[in-house]
Amino acid sequence: MTPRQEASWHGIIAVARRVPSGWCLVGGQMVQLWCWEREVAPVRPTDDGDAVLDIRAHPDIMMQFTRALVDSGFEPDGQDWQGHQHRWVNQDHGQIDILLPEGIGERAKRVGVRGGTTLETPGAQNVLHRAQPFEVSLERQNARIFRPTLQGALIAKAYAYGLVNDPLRLRHIQDFAVLSSMIRISDRVADGLERKERNKLYMAYSAAITEPLALSVDDGNGLRRLATAMAWKA
Questions:
Q1: Pairing mode, strands 141-148 and 131-138
Q2: Which of 25, 78, 104, 216 lies at a 20 to 30 A Cα distance from 209?
Q3: Which residues 6+ apart lie within 8 Å of 132 measured at CB?
Q4: Which pTM value belongs to this model?
Q5: CB of 10 within 8 A of CB of 1?
Q6: Number of domains comprising the chain
Q7: Could you list the residue range(s) of the whole structural domain that residue 34 is in?
Q8: Does residue 176 share a domain with residue 114?
Q9: In sequence order, what DSSP letters do the residues of 49-110 get, joined into one string?
Q10: According to the model, what pLDDT value does residue 110 have?
């Protein structure tokens, strides 16, 4: 773990102790957490943390979460022209980005403790529906953090890959392959999917099987397991 990643994790844990529910860990640290649990080596370094706020179920979560960030030593890393303060940093170079589900209407205008709004992102609500608590410990700091099931994590990365304006979107395909390499029968990754979710997963899978970096993960065996579980032609 790099010093910046460690600083981000200390921040995530500190926030989780202050705001134990109403949000879910996503992004690279979500993948890292699954890797640590299943004893799989991560394939790429990632230092920042990402959190999706469940503003539909918790109307005050924007204020609560950002207040917890400030109380944990974080401040906004500037504000964009739309008034968004989505990136928060501390003096140890820890970084936590906060996101909202898309399509939330007026709720997207709710501000945090420093007066800014934040970004909406597709697929976030799908991930929140699959959030489960997980106990995390780092240097005697403990917290219960919500993270998505493995199915939810795959969906998160599939939606992230669909953001075509992201110049670094191929990293999501790498993460998708890593998550696929951890699939077990008990994960039931094909169960209960909506049609759009299946389509997103298939698009990410189709990209992964043509991407050398993704195919190098577990020699592509995880992607083949995913195809079998989903009844796709591998």
A1: antiparallel
A2: 25
A3: 146, 147, 148, 149
A4: 0.95
A5: no
A6: 2
A7: 1-148
A8: no
A9: EEEEE-TTT-TTHHHHHHHHHHHTT-EE----TT-B--EEE-TT--EEEEEEESS-GGGGG-
A10: 94
Phi-psi region of 213 (alpha: psi -120 to 50; beta: other; left: phi over 0): alpha
Phi and psi at residue 194, in whole multiples of 5°?
-80, 160
Query: What is the helix (H) or strand (E) element at residue 24, kind and residue range?
Result: strand 23-26
The reply to whether 1 and 79 lie within a common domain is: yes
pLDDT per position as a tens digit, 44-62: 889 999 999 999 999 999 9
Residue 75 has pLDDT above 80, yes or no: yes
Identify whether residues 54 and 140 lie together within a single domain.
yes
Do 4 and 101 share a domain, yes or no? yes
pLDDT for 168 equals 82
| Coil, strand or helix at 132 | strand
In tens, the pLDDT along 127-160 reads: 999 999 999 999 888 999 999 999 999 999 999 9
Query: What is the pLDDT at residue 234?
Result: 56
- What is the arithmetic mean of pLDDT over 172-183? 96
In sequence order, what are the residues at sequence separation of 6 or more whose Cβ sits closer than 8 angstroms to the Cβ of residue 69? 11, 15, 75, 88, 96, 98, 113
Q: What is the mean pLDDT of the chain?
A: 95
